[in-house]
Design a protein that fits this description.
Blueprint (H helix, E strand, L loop, with lengths): L2 H24 L3 H20 L6 H18 L4 H25 L5 H21 L8 E8 L6 H12 L1 E12 L4 E10 L4 H6 L4 H9 L1
Antiparallel strand pairs: 1-3, 2-3
Length: 213
């Protein structure tokens, strides 16, 4: 394995992370270029600064500042933050691994540990962001057209509205004048009952026939 091989491995890894995992699951195009550029930029700077007098610490510090600015400049979800740092970590590991091949003595970290760590990051994020993991659990901010201060009554209202079991709720706003309640709710979707499932129309023709009746 050579320095170019490690760079190619990083490109393959960030390609899988960006296109096979993130875009295939979330379909947000604007973050695709962000993940690619962060990965390649961190890898390039790490390779260039690994053997310089400035040191890799300054380069990583600069990218840390840029990451904070990027994360504060627009609102992104927590899973997108995870992809952001996974892209950064892949570039950092690949850059250090490639810099190791450029030195006189190639260590086991460059040959075995770096590719293994990159594969581990991809596997962890593929599992943690899987749509099949806790697929029935949701988080949502709900605005009700009623001021409900009683938490049990609010919980019952939300469960009837969402058709789910509410696990936790936090009242963000209670407006008694305008009769509004804004609540952050964490809930789990419940399976429809057998009676409800059989009562629903199966096709569009059934629905039209029911409306004629």
């Amino acid at each position: 394995m050579s320095q170019l091989t490690m760079i190619a491995l990083d490109l393959v890894a960030v390609g899988l992370l960006t296109f096979a995992l993130y875009f295939a699951r979330h379909r947000r195009r604007d973050l695709v270029v962000a993940y690619l550029i962060v990965n390649v930029g961190v890898m390039a700077v790490t390779v260039m600064l690994a053997d310089s007098a400035v040191g890799v610490g300054l380069g990583l510090g600069l990218f840390g500042v840029l990451s904070i600015i990027r994360l504060r400049s627009s609102e992104i979800a927590q899973h997108e933050v995870a992809y952001y740092f996974a892209s950064l970590a892949l570039g950092l590991i690949a850059g250090l691994g490639a810099a190791g091949f450029a030195s006189d003595t190639t260590s086991l970290v460059s040959v075995y540990v770096a590719p293994a760590l990159m594969a581990m990051i991809l596997l962890v994020i593929a599992f943690g962001d899987s749509p099949h993991l806790f697929r029935a659990y949701r988080q949502q901010t709900v605005t009700l057209d009623a001021a409900i201060a009683d938490e049990p009554a609010l919980r019952l209202r939300l469960e009837n509205l969402l058709g789910a079991r509410v696990h936790s709720l936090t009242i963000n706003k209670l407006d008694l004048v305008n009769d509004i309640t804004v609540v952050d709710v964490r809930y789990r979707l419940t399976a429809p009952t057998r009676g409800v499932a059989t009562a629903m129309p199966r096709t569009l023709d059934d629905a039209l026939e029911g409306s004629r009746r």
